[in-house]
Write a structure and sequence with these properties.
single chain; 374 residues; alpha/beta; Endonuclease III, domain 1; Nucleoside Triphosphate Pyrophosphohydrolase; 2 domains; seven-stranded mixed β-sheet; 44% helix; 11% strand; globular
Length: 374
Amino acid sequence: MSLIRLNRIRRTLLRWYKKNRRDLPWRRARDPYAIWIAETMLQQTQVRTVLPYYRRFLKAFPTVEALDRASKEKVLALWSGLGYYRRAENLKRAARIITREHREKIPRRFDSLRALPGVGAYTAGALMSIAFNRPYPALDGNARRVLTRLFGVKGEKDLLAIASRAALCPRPGEWNQALMELGATICGARDPHCPLCPVRQSCAAWRCRRTLEKTPPDAKRTVVPRRASLAQDDPERGPRVTGRGPRRRVEKLQWPLLVIQKKQKVLLRRRPAAALLSGIWELPGGERMRGESLTAALTRHLNGLGGLVDQSLLVGEVRHSITYRRIRAPVFLLFQAGKEIRPGRGWRWAPLSSLQRYPLSSLSLKAIRLATER
């Protein structure tokens, strides 16, 4: 990669970014804390989903000290519906470390940032470049895809070398955001809009595609270099980056849930302290085992409340994805009247009008909306 070519790409992409970037609140922020919150929320989550959560979270916890002093339950409640709750737990733990060890200031060293719970190489690089204007790459999925296609990257080592070199510029934060913006709006994973790309003339994948389009079918095998093959560099598929390991196989699960409603309240249970996502409230239910009926699975997960469910109570199904899991959740609705259910410790009758106060799982929120609409 020549310095002349790299400088030309940077100038072109930065001009495009300045003119076309989306007006997002964290791009107007100068406070490293606000940028940290945004980058954490944006991990594996779309911008339009993050926007309302970002505003509410900063209003409730405007500083590291405020986040440190807040209860875990309040933090999780404000995160409710955003998913990947481990991110919120890590923010809370990191806020405690920043308050105690860094005098309530976000660390300005890459290794100190990496030492914080939940801060990986991407988040640390984003903070170093965007908040502190230091020349560090920030490789999220969009930036990876753009750099891989643009420079014909052959592997992870090659990608990191190119990303590090490209970040050595006067405005590394804007450069990193320009890469991410291009990947999010034009250089999509499955449907890239190459004719709209400002740097397509310098793109290895674009040149390869153009070469293949102009080459007669019977001559393609001999005139196209191996590393410029369609499978490797075509924008429709994207160049393959090795060294990241195989993708985990997608698991398909059935997860029946029961909405027990009494007047304007629903029955929730709280995940125990030792469990994953401890402190989160959820509807009773759980994974259906092979050969097990939906009602039998619910009865098994109801912790002593068995015998309440039959197939006639099924009102619909919601779907949800968590990392590699694809969940189909049949939803049962039971109106409680007469003798009151007394479920015991860790359970609570929650008013439907106050569900926003509870850190509820996204799956449970979907199920409650479905059941109450019925």
